[in-house]
Amino acid sequence: MQRDSTSLDKLLENPRVWRGHNRAHAGTGLASGYEALDRHLPGGGWPQCALTEILVEQYGIGELRLLMPALAQLSAEDSSADFLEPGWIAWVAPPFQPYPPALQQWGIDLSRMLIVRPKNDNEMLWSAEQALASGTCAAVLLWPEALDDQAGRRLQLAAEKGNSWAIAFRPAAVRGEASAAALRIELQSSAAGTRLCILKSRGGRPAVLHDVL
Fold first, then answer.
1. CB within 8 Å of 167: residues ≥ 6 apart
2. 50 contact partners, CB below 8 Å, separation of at least 6
3. What is the pLDDT of residue 6?
4. Which of 8, 19, 138, 205 could disulfide-link to 87, CB 3.0 to 4.6 Å?
5. Pairing state of beta strands 207-210 and 193-201?
6. Structure pTM?
7. What is the CATH number for 132?
């Protein structure tokens, strides 16, 4: 089936978008690279074509490291992810500047990186939705200041439409709010190590995992 890239084409015309290289590619889970986590996820990995929320008390406690094996797989030419074709990995409103050498060490293909710097939260959510629905992004990472249930459902539908994976990073303080995400996890860091809590998992159960990373 032919993919519609019109939405992403419009997004790429925005001068606030940086591309790592001027090249684009048109039932089971995506292996996370962490066996202990995969055992607790339905399908044995990250949910396909869906929204995942990762809650953190502060950025930099391992939330990106948790995703790196899966993102490297998605960016590979010989990707074994049956439901996702190699394509763009879009970073929408990251609160930092991604460090290319570190990403390369994890096996990320920088030619498939797309960084979007929206002006505000509304533009950020619109950009993420367009990228997800375009059918040309394997994954879209976003850092929204707020994400109500309606916005979450729009992202979920866009991920389903575009056969993409949405990952929203949010503060731990919102754990009590409703979420449309298929998977919602929280990372907690302490002197004893990193604890991963599965708060919500479609088709699965809540769980607490220690020292996953």
1. 51, 52, 53, 54, 67, 139, 140, 141, 142
2. 156, 159, 160, 165, 166, 181, 182, 183, 202
3. 57
4. 138
5. antiparallel
6. 0.82
7. 3.40.50.300
